[in-house]
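Explain this one:

_____
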Amino acid sequence: MLATVDRSTTLVDLPTVRRRRARAAAAPSPATAPASPGTTADVLRIIADPRTPTYVTVFAGGRRRYSYWRPIDPVTGAGGCYAALPTAECDELQASGRITLGEPVVDPNRTTYRVRTAARVPQAPARPAVAPERRRVA
């Protein structure tokens, strides 16, 4: 806050160019945002996109952090950086077998894995197909 001293006991506030809101008040924390079914679908869509390499880093203390490379958006100019994914949704996708981890790259403080979608195995149909009955014509 800018202030000047007019008298020995009175401070006068000068206007500032703009007041900044606290980050906590600007947007809700992603950790407090409730998980929705759309969030898991969005995470799976990002991981499945070949233009966004996705990684999980497992730190020495056991903390896991999923992240991906966000390409530059030509319209907005945003991107060109790593962005975090919600850990709970990614762990859920891994537990259900929808994503897999690649070969580890080990550092003294962390291990990094490439994350990919699991290869889909064609499932057998629920009911066996019944061949149509053939009739002989005499």
